[in-house]
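stuck on this fold:
=====
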Amino acid sequence: MSAFLTKACSLQGRVALLLALACAAPVAAHAAGAPAELSEHISDELNKLKPLTDAKNWDAALSLLTNLAATVSPSSYDYAIISDIKGKVYLSKGEYANAIQPMEAAVRLGDAYGYFEERDIAEKVYYLVQIYYQEATGTKSVALQQQYFNKASASIKRWINSPTGRTSPDAQRQEAALLYASILYNQAVINPDKVDNSALKLAQTEIENGLLSSAHPKETFYVLQLATYQQEGNYIRAAEVLELLVKQYPGKKDYWAQLIATYLNLALDKDEVKAREFNIRAINATERSQTIGFNKTQKDNFNLVGIYINLGQYGKATELLYSGLKNGSIESTQKNWEYLAYSYQQVDKPYQAVDVLKEASALFPRTGQLDFQISQIYYSLDKTEEAYASLISAVAKGHLEKPGSVFNFLAYIAFELRRYDEALAAVDKAIAYSDSSHDTQLPRLKQAIEDAIKERNQYKNAGSRTQ
């Protein structure tokens, strides 16, 4: 969730200013009444820093500071100032991990001896929070992540509860609240296989506090709140947050896509009433988004048809599917034309289904599968001759999904039409295909055909003798 952090690299501008001030006036401000002050030697040496930092000669500046630190007591005011400046140099150089140790030393000495004013300490603490966060999100080590997040959590709580935090402008306090909630969220999901629900709940509490603290809370609060609900599998609350997001930010496509997906997920509910409600919500969300230009791809349009089919609204589904296939807003594939024919059959329009399959057959002339489906519809309409003709076309074209089944059906139709020789050839081919080799009815059908042929031949022979 690094999106919820003002990255440490974005601190460079503010750090550069502070560093310039520190190098220009090395005797830093300290707590009122504190006796600490820089030693004359250290003060003179720090005056050499400004030319180095102006030239961005960071390595030379760090070498100077390191050498100076070795000459003073690690608990002295000199050491605290040197550590403070050293941390700022590392930040300016972009080496954020290396900035941690000297910055922590400055804060520790400031706390112990009152070397810095409260506001100055609070500023250092806030820098450290952001660096901890960046290091935590930038490492793959779970142990290091936990260590950095723990430090970040403790430090941001300290800042929020400090006089500086309590009196900061609303915008900065909002930023801090968001950062704290983000830290808690990341702590909760460090192990995705075992989410820390207590940390997740604490993150939700901080998010809600942040949302209530401003009349116009940051968008990222809602995004983080959404992430917590998704982690919990609480998709109803997630949908509520997404509805708010699409209302406030209708021009953001990703929110619409997530809202539709969330409703479709909820529509898997075993309760038919609830499933219907969420399917309707998914349709509503899709059509709302399409009015502003989103979710209008061929896949999106086909998914919308699928939702209508899930609701049993075949009339609307066929309307959208047919117009989509004709105008190109839905991909013109053989399978999609088959879906359209199926939808027409569901609304008791078999002849329209046949017309659609014939239209599709013209678009995909090399496959016999469409003709096979036409034959099945014709047979259901008691149009056996038409069914037979379609089957002949199907086997002539080939490319059948289950050829054994097609030849089986052809054998049955030919037998019914008393075209016994064709029926026998078809049943032999059906038996030869693996997809129908285990059909226990095939041997009986073949026997019936052979008996019919035998009977026919006997009648022919008897007729010949009579003549």
Confidence is low (pLDDT under 50) at residues 1-13, 24-29, 31-35.
